[in-house]
Amino acid sequence: MPNIEDIQIVDKVLDAAIKYEMERAVQEMCVLLTRNFCEHSPFRVYMLACKHKLKEEAKLAAKACLRVPIAGVFMPELASISGLEYFRLLDYQNKTSLAADAIMTLDSSGPKFWGLFHTRSSCGPQGMSKWWSQFISLALPILRKCPRSNAFFEPALLYPTLDCVAQCQQCRNESVIKDWTLLERLLKQEIHLRTENIELDLSGF
Predict the structure, then answer these.
(1) Are residues 11 and 84 in the same domain?
(2) Structural domains in the chain (count)
(3) Residue 29 to residues 7, 42, 54, 84: CA-CA distances in angstroms?
(4) CB pairs under 8 A, 24+ apart, for 122-131?
(5) Cβ atoms of 132 and 118 closer than 8 Å
(6) Is 204 part of a structural domain of the chain?
(7) 86/118 same-domain check
(8) Co-location of 53 and 120 in the same domain
(9) Which of 81-90, 113-122, 193-202 shows the lowest per-residue confidence on average (mean pLDDT)?
(10) Which pLDDT value is given to residue 18?
(11) Same structural domain for residues 75 and 140?
């Protein structure tokens, strides 16, 4: 199998392979499409999968799109898909975002493990720790745009949260930071659990 690194070449080969019913070539291009491009260009992969009516590849790409913002993003490949196919991707991301959004709550519907991290200090609003309030306020916009984003624990979000911990004696005493990697792992697991069964609508595909 050739290792093609230009997605436009994959698109052209698929055009020819499908036209001339070259099944093996189609299969090889499908593997390349998801293996080489889905991680870094999932939106483009989704559009090409829709263009060539590749159902499984469209599903994989749509799931990968949950890591990146797509609403309002323009790419030339948009011309190759229908408005319905674009709407379905946005609808899928919206439904997934709503499911993930429900995680960021401290009420009874929230994950049971929140109690491991929410300190007894009420240094922030509504009786919660200030560091937790800060984390939620920064994480929610990311979660709503990219429900499976890897950005929750990157420096831009982590450092302001750590500043809040440093400002409160009670939070510092409870060693919030020592379990930070555990919080990351559990949060990712919870997002996966709540969103995994949401499916992209491909009826009539």
Answers:
(1) yes
(2) 2
(3) 10, 15, 11, 25
(4) 123/167, 123/168, 123/170, 123/171, 124/164, 129/164, 129/168, 129/171, 129/176, 130/164, 130/167, 130/168, 130/171, 131/161, 131/162, 131/164, 131/165, 131/168, 131/171, 131/176
(5) yes
(6) no
(7) no
(8) no
(9) 113-122
(10) 98
(11) no
* In-domain check, residue 105: no
pTM greater than 0.85: yes
Question: Is the Cβ–Cβ distance between 50 and 81 less than 8 Å?
Answer: yes
The candidate with the shortest Cα–Cα distance to 11, out of 41, 28, 33, is 33
Q: Which amino acid is at 177?
A: I
Q: Where are the alpha helices (DSSP H) in 127-168?
A: 130-145, 155-166
Spatial distance between the Cα atoms of 182 and 188, rounded to a whole number of angstroms:
10
Tell me the C-alpha distance between 167 and 173, whole Å.
Answer: 11
Indicate whether 1 pLDDT > 90. no
- Sequence-separated (6 or more) residues with CB below 8 Å from residue 40: none
Q: What percent of the chain has pLDDT over 70?
A: 85
CA 37/CA 5 separation, integer angstroms: 8
Residues 71 and 144 in one domain: no
199 in any annotated domain: no
Domain shared by 17 and 88, yes or no: yes
Distance, CA of 73 to CA of 89 (rounded, Å): 13
If asked whether residues 137 and 89 sit together in one domain, one would say: no
For residue 39, what are the domain limits? 7-93
- What is the 3-state composition of the chain as percent helix, strand, coil, each rounded to the nearest 5? 70, 0, 30
